[in-house]
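In the design runs reported in the main text, the only information available to the sequence generator was the tokenized backbone. The following block is the verbatim input for one such run; it is reproduced so that readers can re-run the procedure and compare outputs position by position.
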């Protein structure tokens, strides 16, 4: 074993140990402390993401970063401002990380994010990475260095690329952990809130307050967009504005993991006034249904696209022959895919598979009147 290989393995082992934390908040704290010793940075922003939308689903951690230096919220900038090194670009790139100096060819001032956000805070370079596992992105990070320090090097970038899958795997595993609080029939309905064009909260109902309290604690209202626990809500607002501006077509919705373990889903839609001009944005927040959680659970187990198709067919009660006919496969191929799926999920039968994917991870929702495990799309 070469010296450099041994060093890489030791670093990966240290990051893996740092990832062994019970929740995403402590995971980011531990990993950041370890990575700071290896790479060296002066500020950072970490976020767990919903792999279906790339919006923050929790947790979010900021270190030596003040978003009040920017007239945009971080996710408004990500979705509505043309720039280099965007997370959604990295999520599709062959190399899921890069540096601002590298993408801007040594001229970071070409980037609006540098001019309007990094430079006013004294930062000179940014290293961004997405935590991608099996094609799904479970988190993102931005690391910042002060103006007086050298930009991030190729070695720094290689180190982050080496440990990113370890962090992504840990975040994926946490998506399957901790059962949510029980759903109370008739008491856990949706809440609605209205935000103005600047992202300021205007009004809300009692149910919205209940879910915001569970998501972000008693200071949810006063913190505004500086409240990291509300980052997912602010990101959905930005996505809705991007859709209204014709810049995005993806749904303005995200699944958020509250500290309680409950998954919530947030939808946003831009409203118009009597003249057809953009006005307030309506936000609806409620507990996620089993049908809305099935897809993230399936992806979290690392199933391939074909294995996901077959699993969804199993959930609909189709036999192997029926699945084979529907997907234009042989029954033998279907059996092989099911065998591989059983091994990944840790079950031995079709019934155990359905129970493991749905009942074990979101059983309370399966008893809700409108629960439906057939449809697994977001």
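Verbatim output:
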């Amino acid at each position: 074993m070469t010296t450099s290989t041994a060093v890489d393995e030791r670093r990966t082992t240290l990051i893996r140990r740092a990832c062994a934390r019970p929740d995403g908040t402590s995971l980011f704290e531990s990993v950041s402390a370890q990575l700071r010793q290896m790479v060296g940075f002066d500020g950072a922003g970490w976020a767990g993401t919903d792999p279906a939308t790339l919006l923050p689903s929790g947790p979010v951690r900021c270190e030596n970063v003040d978003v009040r230096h920017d007239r945009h919220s971080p996710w408004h900038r990500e979705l509505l401002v043309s720039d280099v090194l965007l997370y959604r670009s990295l999520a599709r790139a062959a190399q899921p990380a890069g540096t601002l100096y590298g993408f801007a060819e040594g001229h970071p001032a070409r980037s609006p994010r540098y001019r309007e956000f990094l430079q006013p805070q004294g930062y000179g370079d940014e290293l961004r990475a997405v935590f991608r596992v099996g094609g799904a992105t479970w988190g993102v990070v931005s690391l910042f260095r002060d103006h007086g320090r050298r930009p991030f090097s190729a070695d720094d970038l290689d180190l982050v690329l080496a440990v990113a899958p370890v962090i992504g795997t840990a975040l994926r595993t946490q998506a399957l952990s901790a059962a949510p609080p029980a759903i109370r029939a008739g008491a856990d309905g949706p809440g609605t809130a209205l935000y103005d064009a600047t992202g300021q909260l205007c009004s809300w109902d009692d149910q919205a307050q209940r879910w915001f309290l569970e998501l972000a604690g008693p200071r949810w209202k006063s913190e505004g967009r500086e409240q990291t626990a509300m980052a997912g809500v602010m990101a959905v607002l930005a996505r809705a504005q991007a859709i209204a501006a014709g810049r995005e077509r993806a749904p303005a919705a995200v699944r958020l993991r509250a500290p309680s373990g409950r998954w919530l889903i947030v939808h946003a839609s831009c409203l118009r006034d009597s003249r057809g001009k953009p006005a307030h944005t309506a936000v609806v927040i409620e507990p996620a249904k089993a049908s809305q959680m099935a897809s993230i659970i399936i992806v979290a187990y690392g199933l391939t696209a074909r294995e996901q198709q077959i699993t969804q067919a199993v959930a609909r009660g189709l036999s192997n022959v029926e699945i084979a006919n529907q997907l234009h496969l042989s029954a033998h191929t279907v059996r092989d895919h099911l065998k591989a799926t059983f091994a990944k999920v840790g079950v031995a039968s079709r019934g155990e598979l359905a129970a493991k994917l749905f009942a074990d991870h979101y059983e309370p929702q399966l008893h809700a009147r409108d629960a439906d495990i057939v449809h697994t799309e977001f």
